[in-house]
Amino acid sequence: MSKSAIKPRKLPVQSRSKKRVQTILHVTAQLLVESGYDCLTAVGIAEKANIPVASLYQYYPNKEAVIYALCEDMVNAVLQRFNDYENFAEHQLSLDDLLKLMGEREYSDPDKHRLEFELNRAMIAMPQLIDLHKSFDERISERYANILRHYGSQWRHEELINLARIMFRIGNSYFEHISSTKNNPLLAEQSRNLVLRAIYSLVSDSMTGTTQSLA
Questions:
Q1: How far is it, in rounded angstroms, from Cα 199 to Cα 33?
Q2: Contact 171, 107 (CB under 8 A)
Q3: Which H or E element spans position 12?
Q4: Is 46:53 a contact under the CB 8 Å cutoff?
Q5: Nearest 10 degrees: Cα torsion 27, 29, 32, 34
Q6: Distances (CA, A) of 34 to 77, 79, 111, 198
Q7: What is the rounded end-to-end Cα distance, in angstroms, of the chain?
Q8: Distance of alpha carbon 47 from its chain centroid, rounded?
Q9: How far apart are CA 110 and CA 2, in angstroms?
Q10: Contact at 8 Å (CB) between 108 and 192?
C-alpha cells in the first residue's frame, strides 16, 4: 500500500461533513480503546458511526487512512503539551513540579493511555507510518533532552537522547500494562506510581555527574 493510500479522499467543507468526519475519528478511537488495533475494520467503524460504509469511503479510502489521521492528531497533541512544558519563562516551575505536572498529564487517563498505545502499535506495524513514528520518536526525545539540559544536566547530548528514548519506551510499556489492570483501581494506581518513580529516578541520575559515574 502506497503512502498516498492513507491520505483522506476529500476534506470536509460543510459543517455536516465536518461533523461526520469527527464522528468517524471519534468512534475509531473508541474502537481502538475497546478492542485494539488488530480487531479494527472499516465495516466496524461504519457500524459504530451509524453510517453506510460507502460514506466512510467518501472521506477515507481504508481503515489505515483513519488511523493515520488519528496518529497525526496524537503527535500534534503530544508536541503541543511539550511546548507547554518547555515554556519555562511562563510556568517557572522547578524540575520536581514540572515532573509532577507531566505525570498528571501523561499518566492519569487510562483510555488515553490505551489509545496512544494502540496508535503507537499501528505506527510500528504499518509501513506507511514508519516515517511518522521515527519523526515522533526523534522529536519527543529531543524535547525531553532539552528539558533535562535546561534544568542542569551535564550529560552529553547523545546520552540525554538515549535516556529520553528509554523514558519514552517506559511510558509506552506502561500504556500496554495499564490495560491489564483497568478493572483493579488499586493495581492501576500502583502501576502509575511505580512508573513515575522509575522516571523520576532516571531524571535524578541525569542531574548528577556522568553516565560513567553511575556504573
A1: 25
A2: yes
A3: none
A4: yes
A5: -60
A6: 21, 25, 9, 28
A7: 47
A8: 26
A9: 33
A10: yes
**pLDDT at residue 176, rounded to an integer:** 75
Average pLDDT, whole number, for the chain? 89
172-214 pLDDT tens trace:
788 777 777 767 888 888 888 898 899 999 999 999 866 555 4
CATH number at residue 138: 1.10.357.10
Provide the residue type at 98 as one letter. Answer: L
Domains of the chain: total: 1
Copy the grid coordinates of residue 45.
467503524
Q: Provide the residue range defining the domain that includes 203.
A: 3-214
Give the residue carrying C-alpha cell 466496524: 44
CB 144 within 8 A of CB 167: yes
Q: What is the pTM of this model?
A: 0.86
- Contact between 3 and 66 (Cβ < 8 Å): no
